[in-house]
TrEMBL record:
Keywords: Membrane, Transmembrane, Transmembrane helix. GO terms for molecular function: L-amino acid transmembrane transporter activity. One of its GO terms (cellular component) is membrane. It comes from the Bacteria. It comes from Staphylococcus aureus. This is Amino acid permease. PANTHER family: AMINO ACID TRANSPORTER, SOBREMESA, ISOFORM B.
Length: 66
C-alpha cells in the first residue's frame, strides 16, 4: 500500500525549541497568573515580576549548565 509518499521524520530548530519549552514550562504558568496579579496588584507589576522571574531562571539554568 506504499505509494511513495512518506512523512518527513525531522524536527526543525523552532519545533524542537517549542517542545522543550512546553515541557519545561508546563501548564502551571497558566494557573499562576491570577495569583501573581492578585499579589502584585497591577498588570504592569505582574509583567515585571514575570520578567524578573524569567531572568532569574535563565541565570540559574546557565549556572547549572556551567
Amino acid at each position: 500500500m506504499s505509494n511513495g509518499k512518506e512523512l518527513q521524520k525531522n524536527i526543525g530548530f523552532f519545533s524542537a525549541f517549542a517542545i522543550v519549552m512546553g515541557t519545561v514550562i508546563g501548564s502551571g504558568v497558566f494557573f499562576k497568573i491570577s495569583n501573581v496579579t492578585e499579589v502584585t496588584g497591577t498588570a504592569g507589576m505582574a509583567l515585571f515580576v514575570w520578567f524578573l522571574g524569567g531572568i532569574i531562571t535563565i541565570c540559574a539554568g546557565l549556572t547549572a549548565a556551567e
